[in-house]
Specification:
With 156 residues, the chain is an all-alpha fold. It has five helices and no strands. It starts with a helix and ends with a helix.
Length: 156
Amino acid sequence: MSTSDWLLMLHITAAFLLVAGSVAAGVFNVMAVRAERPSETAYLLRLVRISLPAIYAGVLGTLVFGLWLWHQEHIELGELWIWLSLVLWVAVNALGGIGGKHQERTREVAERLASSGDASTEELRALLRDRKGNAMSWLAGAATIGILVLMIWKPG
């Protein structure tokens, strides 16, 4: 196998880690929104943390191996699909970070309520339904799909 083959394999593996971790986090988040008791919500939002190492490895690996592959293959600097992918990569990280902070804040409220009677409040329901907070995570997922589309079809 050539260096380029190895780099491509590692880049694709990192992409799978990013997507798998993101999907797992999304599923746990949706389940947390639908949970009835704060203790269930807190538990499900704690499970999101399990997916973070895969997401972080995917984020770092896609960038490092992708840039290395770009250099190794002598791809021109003007390739629009690569620049668009890099812009979306930055967006994924920014949006995912904002969405993650919202989930952490929601988890903290749910844990507080779980330890004091396990009854939901309007505050928790509002956090779980917060369009802005949830939109950040969903937009990060959409940007991740956008990167995959650009990487697979390489327009231009």
